[in-house]
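Lecture notes, part 5. Sequence design as translation. It can be helpful to think of inverse folding as translation between two languages: the language of shapes and the language of residues. The source text, in structure tokens, appears below.
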């Protein structure tokens, strides 16, 4: 039986060269290489891929949240970014008027105990008398995060706190970047506001400008205090505060999980600036915010512990909470003898997420509008900390306490267990890879020899970096695709994988490359973002046995799965192939193990990610320069001849017999990318 099977392979290799000539002639691509992909579609050789395999990793880096996914338009809304001491820097707030007409400073008169800094505006001019205010008045304005995107016909909710010893008449406006064009206006008129007063205004935009600003002006002499000034679009996703377009790009990836909130952001460069979950819950006005000293910018923490859990729920993804392990920061380590208060803080955070609404911290969550527990079952103890002297001692304290309280929670260690067993208990171990394209591509085989028993790998951060990546190149995406095919084929040993970083505001690039690039009004996916679309149907799919015969074989990698399309309920056989080489390849696909006439002769789709130059990138001018291109496959059978473009990622979705029409099926499949 074995010799007959080998003879069959030899014959196919000979036929491949002949059939490739016809195929190449038909496509206009000259294939200088030949290869055969054998796919065994029988159930006996198949196995299920974990439901959790491909997800996303969100870190507050590159203004991913503040000025990005979190839709708050005001930057430094509480005037706290300049620090707790006064007078302080109010950047990016700016003054409208000169020193003869207005003086702006800060003091510690806020009504919020954790946010004591407020802005004091002394108006020196008036609408009558010798010192007449300039037209429109004097005041302050906020440009947001490199411009507020205000769109005609949309509504924006302004919330602010104000007080004064005199009557006030404050003009509120959304204007163009130079303050001349009025896009939306309103007035705050009040007589008795010696105590802090909360004001809410709905602004209706009459024009569009992606570089708008919020202005607060007065023409009346006196002193006015402002605090906690927030402006949010009313069309955030489900009213949960997430910017619709960016949220949609995440949703389209169908992530199985979301890891949050970092990364190095969790730790801080120093302990005093670490992310502390308790400081990020409750009313937004009460959140003190903090300076993220790893990526060097202020966050008001409107996107806090609760919002991350809500984001996971809205995405239909499993939350993976990364928390401080007591190494705490890049420069501070807490001795294991003093770690218990940090352990308790994490137990409180788990109770906040999972506790009964009558529990101490579960009741706080319930008051925030979510009485039902969140489905938090994964936590990571630290980030990239395995080599630190206190890590193992601290890790074991966290591990024991969490397992005692929540036995079902799966705990992730920072130590790599892919090459040798861990010396401590864990459910998963973290694995990061940032390297050149050739290195990432070759690491597709890294887990081939990894033990299948014991803790599973969580590849929580992978990406091509350096010159090969640029700001997001095709070359990087192809290497990463090859790596992920290896992840698929080794999914007995790997439970999760996610690209990093996820977002970058184009005005504040702290890291290159990233999956999604945006400004206040625009966005696009890099080739690495589109590459991930080829894998979004793999979660919970069935991995088929497959093997490649090619010479040379080091530039090709392939996998095969079967998956069910939720849009049309049809089952597909998907073959993915990366051609990392510089020449086209004539590929013979040979599928065995199927019942006769199992594949539909029509309704199949070929999807390709490639470009004329391997270093091509997407941009705001050409957002889809490198993106998936789809075409119908006309001839489908258990033995097929196809051509792989040089430097390409290609998938073939073959429809298995069903009652749906091929036209409807193709439409549903195309829309799934």
């Amino acid at each position: 039986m074995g010799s007959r099977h080998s003879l069959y392979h030899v014959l196919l290799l000979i036929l491949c060269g002949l059939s490739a000539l016809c195929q190449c002639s038909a496509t206009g691509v000259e294939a200088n290489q030949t290869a055969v992909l054998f796919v065994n579609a029988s159930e006996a050789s198949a196995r299920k891929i974990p439901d959790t395999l491909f997800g996303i990793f969100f870190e507050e880096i590159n203004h991913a949240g503040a000025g990005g996914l979190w839709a708050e338009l005001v930057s430094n809304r509480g005037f706290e970014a300049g620090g707790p001491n006064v007078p302080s820097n109010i950047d990016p707030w700016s003054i409208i008027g000169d020193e003869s007409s207005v003086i702006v400073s800060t003091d510690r008169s806020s009504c919020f105990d954790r946010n004591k800094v407020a802005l004091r505006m002394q108006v020196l001019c008036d609408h009558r008398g010798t010192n007449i205010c300039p037209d429109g008045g004097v005041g302050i304005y906020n440009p947001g995060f490199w411009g507020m995107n205000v769109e005609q016909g949309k509504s924006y909710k302004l919330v602010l706190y104000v007080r004064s010893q005199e009557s006030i008449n404050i003009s509120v406006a959304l204007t163009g970047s130079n303050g001349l064009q009025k896009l939306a206006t309103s007035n705050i008129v009040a007589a008795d506001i010696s105590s802090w007063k909360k004001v809410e205004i709905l602004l209706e935009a009459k024009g569009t400008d992606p570089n708008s600003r919020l202005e607060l002006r007065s023409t009346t002499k006196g002193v006015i205090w402002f605090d906690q000034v927030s402006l949010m679009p009313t069309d955030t996703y489900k009213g949960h505060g997430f910017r619709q377009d960016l949220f949609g790009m995440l949703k389209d990836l169908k992530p199985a999980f979301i890891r949050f909130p970092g990364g190095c952001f969790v730790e801080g460069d120093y302990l005093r600036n670490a992310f502390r979950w308790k400081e990020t819950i409750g009313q937004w006005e009460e959140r003190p915010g903090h300076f993220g000293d790893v990526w060097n910018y202020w966050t008001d923490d409107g996107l806090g512990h609760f919002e991350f859990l809500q984001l996971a729920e809205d995405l239909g993804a499993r939350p993976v909470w990364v928390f401080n392990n007591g190494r705490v920061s890049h420069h501070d380590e807490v001795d294991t003898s003093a770690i218990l208060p940090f352990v308790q803080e994490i137990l409180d955070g788990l109770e906040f997420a999972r506790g009964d609404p009558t529990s101490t911290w579960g009741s706080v969550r319930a008051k925030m509008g979510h009485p039902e527990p969140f489905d938090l079952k994964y936590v990571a103890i630290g980030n990239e900390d395995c080599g630190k002297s206190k890590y193992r001692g601290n890790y074991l304290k966290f591990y024991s306490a969490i397992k005692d309280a929540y036995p079902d929670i799966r705990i992730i260690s920072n130590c790599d267990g892919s090459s040798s067993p861990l010396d401590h208990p864990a459910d998963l171990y973290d694995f990061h890879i940032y390297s050149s394209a050739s290195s990432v591509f070759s690491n597709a085989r890294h887990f081939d020899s990894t033990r299948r028993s014991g803790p599973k790998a969580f590849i929580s951060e992978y990406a091509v970096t350096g010159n090969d990546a640029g700001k997001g190149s095709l070359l990087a995406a192809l290497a990463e695709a090859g790596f992920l095919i290896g992840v698929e084929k080794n999914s007995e040993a790997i439970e999760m994988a996610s690209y990093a970083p996820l977002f970058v505001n184009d005005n504040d690039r702290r890291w290159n490359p990233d999956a999604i690039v945006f400004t206040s009004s625009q966005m696009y996916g890099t080739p690495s973002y589109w590459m991930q679309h080829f894998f979004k149907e793999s979660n919970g799919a069935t991995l088929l046995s497959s093997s490649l015969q090619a010479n040379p074989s080091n530039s090709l990698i392939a996998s095969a799965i079967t998956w069910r399309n939720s849009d049309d309920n049809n089952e597909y056989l998907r073959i993915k192939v990366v051609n990392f080489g510089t020449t086209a390849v004539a590929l013979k696909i040979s599928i065995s193990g199927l019942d006769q006439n199992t594949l539909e002769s029509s309704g199949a789709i070929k999807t390709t990610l490639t470009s004329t130059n391997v270093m091509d990138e997407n941009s705001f001018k050409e957002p889809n320069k490198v993106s998936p291109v789809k075409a119908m496959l006309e001839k489908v059978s258990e033995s097929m001849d196809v051509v792989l473009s040089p430097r390409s990622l290609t998938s073939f979705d073959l429809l298995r017999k069903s009652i749906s029409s091929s036209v409807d099926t193709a439409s549903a499949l195309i829309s799934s990318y």
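The translated text above is only one of many valid answers, since several sequences can fold into similar shapes. The radius of gyration is 29 Å.
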